Amino acid sequence: MLARATVYRLRDWGVGRQRGWGCPIPVIHCTACGAVPVAEADLPVVLPAGLDFSRPGNPLTRAEAWKSAPCPQCGAPAERETDTLDTFVDSSWYFARFPDPHAAQPVGPAADGWLPVDQYVGGIEHAVLHLLYSRFVTRALRDGGLVKVSEPFERLFTQGMVTHETYRRQNGEWVEPAAILFRQEGAHAAPSSARRASRSSWAMQKRCRSPSAMGSPRPRSPTSTGSTPPGCSCFPTRARS
Ligand SMILES: [Zn+2]
Fold first, then answer.
1. What single string gives the DSSP state of each residue in 26-75?
2. Which one of 52, 59, 98, 241 is least enclosed by Cβ atoms within 10 Å?
3. Which pairs count as long-range contacts for 166-169, CB under 8 Å and 24+ apart, including other chains?
C-alpha cells in the first residue's frame, strides 16, 4: 500500500546580495587565511552610515574605512565581506528573538514560553517562500539547541494581495486616487487642480507600491499579477503556560 508523502521543494537559496543594506555577513577575507569568521565578541557587525548610493553597484565595496579590518586569525590587514544577507534570512527567525529582545544570546530563554507563533498573516508569496525558509531555519535553530519547537507557526492566514489602481501624469508625478474624477466607466479625467491636463496625459498604473496611491485599497484575488504585497506579520501573541 502506498503511503502519503509530503514533498518540500526548498531549492538553493542565494542569500548574498550586493547592496548597502540587509544583515552583514560576519566574515573577513584574509589573503593568507582565507575566509575567517568574525570573533563572537565582535558581533554584530554593523553597517556604516552615510553610504554613497549615487553610483551603481554595492556602496559597501567603496566604504574603505569600514571594509578594512584585521584578520581575526593572523592579525594582518584584511577585508570584510561586502555582500549582505537577503532580508528573508533575518525574517526567518526574528519571531524567536522578539520574545526576549535584550537577551545576551541571539535567542533568549523566554522564547520557549512564547513559541510557536499562534497566527501568521502574509501575502501569497509568504505561503511558500518565507514560510518554508522560516521552517527550515527553525529546524536549524532547534538542532543547534537554541529553540525547542520544530515548527515556528501554528496557523497561516494568507490574506491575498491588496491592490489598487494608481495614477500618474506623463511627467511621472503621482496623483491621489481621490483627486481623480470618474466621468464614465473606464474613463479618467484630470482632477480640478490640474484641469488643463488632457485626458491622454493620464496613465493608469497597475502596481500598488506608489507613494500616493494607497487610499481605499480593494482586495483582489491572491493570484493578481503585477502587484506588491502589503507585508506580513508573524509575532508571538501570548506566552504559553
Ligand atoms: Zn589571516
1. -EEEETTTEEEEPPGGGPSP-PPSS---SSSS-GGGG-HHHHEEE-TTT-
2. 241
3. 166/204, 166/205, 166/206, 166/207, 166/208, 166/210, 166/213, 167/202, 167/203, 167/204, 167/205, 167/213, 168/202, 168/203, 168/205, 168/210, 169/194, 169/197, 169/201, 169/202, 169/203
Terminal Cα-to-Cα distance of the chain (whole angstroms): 41
- On whether the pTM is more than 0.70, the answer is no
Q: What is the mean pLDDT of the chain?
A: 78
Q: Residue 47 Cα, ligand 1 centroid: separation in angstroms?
A: 22
Predicted pLDDT of residue 195: 39
Give the DSSP H or E segment for 113.
helix 111-114
Residue 151 identity (one-letter amino acid):
E
- Tell me, in angstroms, the distance from the centre of ligand 1 to residue 36's CA: 7
